[in-house]
Automatic annotation (TrEMBL):
Keyword terms of this UniProt record: Hydrolase, Manganese, Metal-binding
SUPFAM superfamilies: Bacterial exopeptidase dimerisation domain, Zn-dependent exopeptidases
InterPro entries noted in UniProt: Amidase_Cbmase, Bact_exopeptidase_dim_dom, Peptidase_M20, Peptidase_M20_dimer
CC cofactor: Mn(2+)
Record's protein name: Hydantoinase/carbamoylase family amidase
Organism: Falsiroseomonas frigidaquae
Sequence similarity: Belongs to the peptidase M20 family.
SUBUNIT field: Homodimer.
Amino acid sequence: MTIAAAEARALDLAAGFLDAIRDGSLDAPGVTRASYGAGERLAHARAREAAEGLGLEIRVDPIGTLSMTLPGTDRSLPAGIIGSHADSVPHGGNFDGAAGVAMGLAVAARLRHLDRRLDRDLTVLAIRAEEMVWFPANYLGSRAAFGLLPREAPDTLRRADSGRSLAEHMAEEGFDPDFIRQGRASLDAARIAWFLEPHIEQGPVLVEAGLPAGIVTGIRGSLRHRNCRAIGQDAHAGGAPRRNRRDAVIAAARLVAGLDDLWTAEEAAGADLVCTIGEFCTDATRHAPTRVPGEVRFTLDIRSEDVATLARAEAWLAQAATEAQARNGVAIDYGPALHVPPALMDPRLRAALGAAAAEAGIPTMPIASGGGHDCATFAGQGVPSAMLFIRNDGGSHNPAEAMEMDDFAAAFRIAAGAVERFG
């Protein structure tokens, strides 16, 4: 079979998989594939059917991770892995995560149709439970596969929509929560040569640049505070003079404006940084047009590829709290901090992706990943890891996701060429 014919058949398989899981998980206005739920189950079943059609070796671990392997010529070597997750947010788009599973199947199909084998096994991975909206744990499925979840997680984590435990949902899907309770692992970093996660871009950078694909430099780490409070004192809007006010809104607004100034300065200096105030509100049971607000609740999400940049932002927050107390008499309580370290992508793998793109004549750009991905789990375990972003209009985590199959095809040619270079 010619390369062109093999690639056409591989892309048809990927498109068919994506169409099938969309049709099977429609939940207007988007799709819903809940972690350890019906939609995720369907996506794994369709992936398995495609893999069986290619004659791949199939394995499902006790937590539901689906491994689909094309044997290499030397099976003693650590395997190469390509894949992503198959769950989605509620009423989300069809491509977040699933495009990476489709890409893995397409790369394996191309090799199979060309009757080629890599030196090492190539495993296409469909990972469980990546979307944190369902269970309150980062990268639940990949961390569980590496044995990294707390042993009590099956019994303490509850799914947002049902209120039922992870253990109950796992058992309902035919999996074994004792695997996590016992601290067992199905993935061994020492037996993984590399991990590649293709994924749609979740922002507009590639669309703005007019490029079909981007080579990820790293996954931003984050500093998150979900329960911030600016605590002042309620007062009468007409009776309290300025000098006596402890206005929580004024103090919190100054903090937000100052954070934006910090972001501007860091960006001008060449630092990678993004800052988000996702929630900002007074108490609906207490606020009124004639009351000086004594409390504001807000959230903070600060991300960067660079640990030093995150540290500077954290120091700035401490100083801003001191200034709010001195200037406005308002205490800033950020509440607990959640630190997630950055995950930098492997330089050798990035170079191989770049070389494959150049050979295929496909323009790309380096790009940071603002969202978290299972790839961060692999990188954190010392596995050489890489990500390939696919242009996607309309953003992510919403029904407007609009990855074009022409862009998928361009990224597929990069991924297929890079996998043969990874060694």
